[in-house]
Each structure stands twice: as C-alpha cells, then as structure tokens.
Amino acid sequence: MDLAFVQSGLLERFLDSDVISAAEVDAMLKRRGVLDGTPVLLDEETMMPVPTLCEYGRYLSTALLDETTLKDYGRVIGRLNNYLVKLESDVLSAVETDLVSYRSHRTQWQEKPIGGSAWGKESFVLDDLYGFLVDRGFLSHRPARVAARGRNALAPRVRSSMDIRHLTFDQYRYLRDVGFGGQLPDAQVDLHFRGWSPLRNRAGSDMALGSGMRWREWSTVLLPEIGLWPGMPGGAAEFTVQACAKYGKARPIYVPEDAVGSADLFCLLERPDIVRRAARTLERKARDLFVVGKVDVAGGRVRGVQDGVVREYQMSAMPAKLRRIAVHEGEFGLEALSLFVCRGGLMPGADAWKGYRHRAWVRMNALADETTPLLPVRRWRWHDLRHTYALRLLTYLENVMDGEEPNLQARRRRHRSYLTGHIRHNPLLIVSRRLGHASPETTYQYLQYTDDLINEFESAFACWVGDDEATYAEIATHALSAADEGRR
C-alpha cells in the first residue's frame, strides 16, 4: 500500500481534470469534514483507496485531531503494513503472531530500535485501529487477545514515567550565551562565531524558561500577544493559549518582563534585517497568505484576507498552521505577524528549531573547558527548559510556604488548611495549572527532583557506612595480613 495525505492547498496547483474543478473538490472536503493531514492508503497496483483503511482515516478526521497527529497515525499504519507484506500478510488479515513479530522488530531487531514510550504511542494507534475495524464490522474480532487488566500483545512491557531533565543556572547560561549567543566560556565575544540570528535563539530560550510554555506554544506566539505591537505599553505580557496548546486546552500564560525584553532586543536588532530581505518573497506569495489588515488588541482578534475572502479570528484560536502564514503590512512591505521569523520571512518550523538547538549543542561541547558546567550525557531538548521552569517554581513556592518553620511543622500547618485554601495556595496545584497539565498526577512526578537526595542520605545515614578512623589503604593492608595469616 502507498500512503498519502489530504492537502487541500495543493489542489489549485496540481489538479488537472475536466471532470471536477479544484474549487469543487475543496468544497467537498470541507462539507465531508475531511481535514488536511487525513491519511489515505492506496492499493499499489490500482492506486485506488483501500476502503476500510480510508474509512479509519475519515474517522480520525472527524475526531478533530490536528494535522501532525493525523499524519503520525497514518505513518504508523503504513509502517505496519510494509512489515506485514514481508510476512505475506496485511493489516486486515494479520494474526496475533504477526503483530508480536512487528513489535519485536520495532523494539529490538531494526537498526535503531524505538524505546518503550515511542512504542506505547504506536501500540495505542494500532489498538485503536483494530478496535475501530471490529466496531464497524470490518473484522469479526481483534487479532490480539486481551489478557488480564485489558493488556494485550501490543501493550508495552514497561510503563515508563516522564523523562524529566532540567538545567542548573550555570548550565542554562552556558547554553544561552555560549551555545546560542556567540560568546566564549569566559564571557568574551567569539569573533569567529558565524551563527544565524543568535538574539532570536536566545529570546526563544528565555521565553521557554520564563513562561514554562511547550515548544508549540512559545514558538508560535504573535507580536500582539507578547505586547510588541504599536500602542502597547510593553513590560510583562499575559495572553491565552488554546489552539496551539496540548489537547486544545485553554490556559492563561504569563511572560515575565525580562523574557519580553529579550524578545524586544531581537525585534530591534535582528528582526528588521530578516524582514527586509524577505519582503519581496512574501509579496509574491501574498495570495497563499493570511494578510492581516486590522488587529484588535483589546479583543484579542485579527481581521484580514485569506484565499480572497475576508476572515476574522480570535488569536488564541488560531492554529499553528494559520499563524505561520499570517502577515501584515510593515515598514518594508509584508512581514510575519509571528514574533519569531527565519530567512524565508515566516515562522520557523519544527525542523528549523531542532537544527538551532543541535548546532548549539555541538558548539557547547566544542568550546567546553575546565570552567564549563557539567553537561548532560544526552543532548538537551527544548522541553528541558519547561521542566526547569516547573522545578524552580515548585521549589520556590514550597520554600515560601514553609517560611522559617521546620519542615515538619510547616507540613502539618499546610495539611490543616481548608480545602479552598489548599486548592488556591498548594504549590503543586499552582504549578500544575501553570503548566496546563490535564491532571495534577502528572505534576506529582516532578516531586522526586525537588529533594536534595545526596545531603538527605548523608544526614540520615551519617556514620552508618564506612569507618572514619580507617583509610582504604589501612583496610586493604589488614585484608592482606589476614590472608597471609590464613596461609600460614
């Protein structure tokens, strides 16, 4: 089977048919609720859609999943089918042993096996697919038997917890100033630095750390949202994320003044040159862009022309795909409405931001010396800054609540508080709300990183292990003497 995805934006450019026009196909997709990114599986010989699997694609589309998720689901099904073809089987005729073999291939045998977390997501998709096929009557039963507690042959063997990795103050400053900013470890300017837009990348890291937003949230922020818009007072910014938030769950975001100042510095020194160079390119692409003519800062709305039609959107409800093509008339012509821009004049995508941090990691390791803070073994991620925000805020709030009282007394005082006060002032619940976690249970996993385990061990087991009066040399000598006496 071949895998394709619905892309309505390509209809006018590539559809060449006397039977039906691009506008009619686009209208049909909208009427049937088929979203961009919906997977379409085609028979390799006839190039016709496979009805049962395409029906599953439509089912995913009606679930209002975003484009990236729809494509990920399609790729999972495509990978499974490609493997099953080698076993002279396919998705619809697979048996339990085929699926067990596929699981082993993905987690053990292939050149680069995936981990338990990645397989957990993939097994969820396959379980959902076969559940759909049984519910719709395409299959009489699932190929994998359901065992105790609902587990089956596809379920991951190990339930992994969150991979929480955070940075110390020195590690973060080294990342930001040396990795991104073009400095040397001694804080001097590196005259050989040839990085592109260091202020933009520094601003991105400050935004991620200062607000605790996920990558999709801070990288898609618009100029009016962050307060860098004509007529706005500046300083700290508050706005709502919704369409770019995980699961579309709306929550308020607070960006401190220092992080906004970092973004403002990028807008003053680097952004104008990028915008000026890309203005002519954006003018040529104007018909494919959302050209904003009016920004209602107080109401949080924008109004402009998209596909020849005047449209109005609530900024918080604008998905990343729409934000990426939103432009307005600036000093040099059309320029992106988003804060962060790349050489093409529009918002950088996931691969671009990944490349920025990869190059920063290489630079950090290349310049490391005796003054460099300890770098992690694994390459850092943008999400590590969100974890750092969560841990620092949680630790700070706990210290504020404890005050000068001993820990035991402070904990008793907290536990005696009323339920309303507990909900409003509990550090864990505050951080959970700030991060936008669906459940405080997710935030609980941060608790294990707020304790000083080394010092706690030293205090609890002082004098239990080792011998203060005997050195390792003395112990070794005593052991050898005992051995010699035994031989005599």
3D architecture notes:
- With 488 residues, the protein is of the alpha+beta class.
- Among the domains are: 2-150, no CATH class; 169-354, no CATH class.
- 49% of the residues lie in helices and 9% in strands.
- It contains 21 helices and nine strands.
- It has helices at residues 11-14, 22-31, 51-62, 67-86, 96-109, 116-135, 169-180, 198-211, 215-218, 223-226, 257-269, 271-284, 320-324, 350-366, 383-402, 407-415, 419-425, 427-435, 440-444, 453-460, 472-487; strands at residues 2-5, 39-42, 237-241, 251-255, 290-296, 301-306, 309-314, 326-329, 334-336.
- Strands 7-6-5-8-9 form a five-stranded mixed β-sheet.
- Strand 8 and strand 9 (334-336) form a beta hairpin.
- Helix 8 (198-211) crosses helix 15 (383-402) and helix 15 packs antiparallel against helix 18.
- The N and C termini lie far apart (79 Å).
